[in-house]
Amino acid sequence: MMIRGKPDEDDYWNSSKFKAFTFDDEDDDFTRLKESKRAVNSIRSLVEEEDEEDDVEKVSWSGEPVGSISWSVKETESSIRSTGEVRDQSFPKIHTAPSLPKNSSGYSLSSLFKGKAKTGSFQSFSESFGDPSIRNYAPELRKPKSEYKDYVSDWTPEETVKRMQQGKVYSLEKFRSLQDKLLLLDEAVNAHDGNVITAVLIYLKKSLSKEILFRELITREIALRHYIHYLKEIGEQKLLVELFKSMDRTEDMALMQYRDHLNVRDENKKRDFLKNCLSFPFSPDDATHVQDHYTLLERQIIIEANDKQVESSGQADIFKKYPRKASILNMPIITTLYYSCFYHYGESDGTFSSPANIRKTFRISDKQFLLTCLGARAKLKAWFDVDALFTTKNWLGYTKKRSPIGFHRIVDILQKNNAPVQVLQDYVNLVEDVEQKISLAQKYKCHDVIINTYRDLKDRQQLIVYRGKVERGSSEYRKIEEILSNSQLRWKN
Amino acid sequence: MSAHLSYGRVNLNILREAARKELREFLDKCGGSKAIVWDEYLTGPFGLIAQYSLLKEHEVEKMFTLKGGRLPAADVKNIIFFVRPRLELMDIIAENVISEDKMHSPRDFHILFVPRRSMLCEQRLKEQGVLGSFINIDEYILDLIPYDGDLLSMEDMHIDTTHIPECYLESDQTSLYHTAKGLMTLQALYGTIPQIFGKGECARHVANMMLRMKREFAGSQTQILPVFDSLLLLDRNVDLLTPLATQLTYEGLIDEVYGITNGYVKLPPEKFSAQKKQGEAGKDLPTEPKKMQLNSAEELYAEIRDKNFNGVGAALSKKAKIISAAFEERHSAKTVGEIKQFVSQLPHMQAARSSLANHTSIAELIKDITTSEAFFDNLTVEQEFMTGVDTDKVNTYIEDCIAQKDPLIKILRLVCMQSVCNNGLKQKLLDYYKREILQTYGYEHMLTLNNLEKTGLLKPQTSTRNNYPTIRKTLKLWMEDANEQNPNDISYVYSGYAPLSIRLTQVLARPGWRSIEEVLKMLPGPHFEERQQLPAGLHKKRQQGENRTTLVFFLGGVTYAEIAALRFLSQMEDGGTEYIIATTKLINGTSWIKSLMDRPEAQAS
């Protein structure tokens, strides 16, 4: 198998698998797109003679866009909006699609599953929902025995659940003992109808103490899930927390409470909220993240207040030259670090806003730190700072450039920030792999690097080829001439 | 607009007609003129069932989008709310009803819940004091919507936004219940399905519910000759890998790049405007995206949708030649009869021409993406993971993407893919990725990471044994020489990777799952086979050489590339089986991950 980024593996580029989406062959499939485009174009002139307003939809798109429901909704609404008056609006002109052959089906979905009794309301713990309207309900192809019974009290849990599913009158009140209630719940769960399960749970919530209900739910996973969903829906956060607590699902509880910080707008309140979260029983990993989140916001508030003041007072050049585009509040840590490297570079480690302090506090990896810092300093064209990022001194006092990331990537980042060739070539030179170095140098026109590399490789042929690519009489041209005429060099070709 | 539904092996128009009839019946129940107030989400799915003309025939005079405050004035007798059972929608409805000026215009209110009514919602209406204002509270059972001649989807209408969709991945009974219900409806229309196969926890549940429902309705058997020979229920979590991979079919790529909703795609208009009005420079440059319907009703689209994108160019140019030749015929038309003949064909030719023009433009748009370096790099990493290269190490491409702050969804897709292909990540590696993500995108994403861990897409390695390579080899999930132009294997849909879900389907048809017992055991959840008794006299007598028809139901979503692979199997000459596809939702990696994110809307970056 191939490994990305290793140019020595020629197989990689030639294997059919990875060529799948290169499209660089001259006769590849996609030059044919042009062909079909040409064909389309040549036909157009003819078609337009025939039909001025060739409406694509009408002819080939089976009429759907015009006359579709969403189109009609928009149409009615816009007509209302534009006139401000509704009463006398006429309908949008509707393009009626050819209607279907009527004989294709005699069925209607509800006729397949229509309940016999059309009266009575679905809801009720004996409190009827009022309207005895005509309603259709889900499957009842066979008359259940229960229909012949007259008294509510006769209904077993099974029959009750079935009636609920069918939307008939039912009563849960008669399930008084705990045992009966649980039988009812289990029956509802067996029927798998979430609507019915929820209805039973609402009844149990009303009629059982929460301790008992929680205890019973522990062994009833499906009912429990519906109950949690129900509590979430109606926003009973407090009860939900208690439930999780009693279930020993403390991590879920903690996360759920943490989630609420998203609803807090005011940054000071949010900070306090997060501080409060610190005591929750998160998993060790999450606890660290929440701690970091809190620390970050706390700092952002301090930095924001300070920088806002400095900026408006006009004291610092950096803010004058590069006015802040947005507040730093609620930004991710890496963005904050970038900001810090941009506006607070060189501050002593002691300040909250210094890059070094942020790096340490939030345990930012060397790579991330370097990339972020590089991005910020390059944006400011502070090439000296960029240089310093990579410079290390060994014990003899020699300096050397090192990087936790390949120098080819450093070059890319610098280039994206419009670094001048003089800066770029220093880093291109540091790329170890010769082929990669040359290809980068060619991409970014670092002539010196290319020329020197060919010279060092004693590759006269390549040098001659390259001479043909540079401008005649330019300094790089002269440099190549000079090298080629140097009789001291022993060329390999 | 629905003719294409009846071209397939199974006439899905019957299902659509049943749904339309149901709708008419409800509308007629509310006598007199009416206005419909729409939950906007529903207009898309309803568009696949009916057009405005149908509603109009039943006295629907006005249609509005559901909004808070006062309802627009409309001189109608009935106001009908078409809504999903959501609490927040109930509050809006209540507001509408309360602020209605009763003195001025006494109007009747009705609610139609789609796809099911809900206890909770009715209770909320009651709390708001408006439940009594409704004359009709009804439900419109919309479980399976026909999307194409061989495709049905539930479009996840049963799922709640507030609910972490652990549903299909773990098991949410409600959505499974509706799936079972939908399958019962299908059986009522198309006959009992004699054989049920399945793999996964949810599949098991659905099969159990179906069998139970059948017992309950025993005696009211439909006397219909079975259309389907078998049903295969597949859990998405049996194959978490496939949706994470970038689809490489034409339709799959359109979905990956632009997103297909309810059979429509919205495209940047530039390419299309230039085409229509050339020469009239600068006149009315459209700013609205171009909306296009994509289905098999369009001949050319049906031809190219399932091709690997690398084969689309050739198909389009071939088509171009045919059309050009057809137009050229006008020169050879000499007699009046010939000219008449030519003219009579013009509309059809024009349709073909504009269809070709559109797809050439779309292909160009897509090609700009697929030829980009970013696309290539991303695909390379995906293919490395799928072939098992360095899945246990920090991937520098992912690292780079994080450093560049590429969209979070892209990162999550790749990290999850690495995790799935490595049967979980070493704790240290997982922690590393998590830290990088949280530091770069914000700590609040720990909620999303948590969701992904719950679903198993992201997980720490628990055993040292990674069985993905065994699965890959046994099921031949990676084919070295996938032929994209003239495919001979389903692996063409991902240019090398054969979707696991479809391999399971393929093996089931021939030679049967018994041959892969070992692998089935490595995949999560039970596998099973059930038989359903057919009423006497309804046993199908198969003709020699007649294909079997299998309904494959994906619980938790299916991608267009998987659909393409199934269509490929259907069309194989000696395949022996034709497939109809049903799913809870049409998905791609992006929409899937998004559905698992905490507050995806707040994280557009």
Automatic annotation (TrEMBL), chain A:
A Gene Ontology biological process term? vacuolar transport
Where does it live in the cell? Cytoplasmic vesicle; Early endosome; Late endosome
Q: Which InterPro entries has this protein been placed in?
A: Spe-39, Vps16_C
Q: So which residues are the signal peptide here?
A: none
User: In the UniProt record, which is one GO cellular component term?
Assistant: early endosome
Q: Which UniProt keywords apply?
A: Cytoplasmic vesicle, Endosome
Q: Which domain of life is it from?
A: Eukaryota
How is this protein named in the record?
Spermatogenesis-defective protein 39 homolog
Q: Which organism is it from?
A: Oncorhynchus tshawytscha
TrEMBL record, chain B:
Q: Cross-referenced InterPro entries, in alphabetical order? A: Sec-1-like_dom1, Sec-1-like_dom3a, Sec1-like, Sec1-like_dom2, Sec1-like_sf, VPS33_dom3b
Q: Which GO terms describe its biological process?
A: protein transport; vesicle-mediated transport
Highest taxon in the source lineage: Eukaryota
Keywords, in A-Z order: Cytoplasmic vesicle, Endosome, Lysosome, Membrane, Protein transport, Transport
Q: What is its main location?
A: cytoplasm
**Bilayer topology annotation:** Peripheral membrane protein
> GO cellular component annotations, sorted alphabetically?
autophagosome; clathrin-coated vesicle; early endosome; late endosome membrane; lysosomal membrane
Query: Does the record's keyword annotation contain Oxidoreductase?
Result: no
Q: Name one Pfam family in it.
A: Sec1
Q: Please give the start and end residues of each transmembrane region.
A: none
Cross-referenced Gene3D superfamilies = 1.25.40.850, 3.40.50.1910, 3.40.50.2060, Syntaxin Binding Protein 1, Chain A, domain 2
Q: Where in the cell is it found?
A: Cytoplasmic vesicle, Autophagosome; Cytoplasmic vesicle, Clathrin-coated vesicle; Early endosome; Late endosome membrane
| Entry keyword annotation includes Transferase | no
UniProt cross-references to PANTHER family, sorted A to Z: VESICLE PROTEIN SORTING-ASSOCIATED
The UniProt family comment states:
Belongs to the STXBP/unc-18/SEC1 family.
What is the role of this chain?
Plays a role in vesicle-mediated protein trafficking to lysosomal compartments including the endocytic membrane transport and autophagic pathways. Believed to act as a core component of the putative HOPS and CORVET endosomal tethering complexes which are proposed to be involved in the Rab5-to-Rab7 endosome conversion probably implicating MON1A/B, and via binding SNAREs and SNARE complexes to mediate tethering and docking events during SNARE-mediated membrane fusion.
Q: What is this protein called?
A: Vacuolar protein sorting-associated protein 33A
Organism equals Oncorhynchus tshawytscha (Chinook salmon)
Provide the gene name from the record: LOC112245911
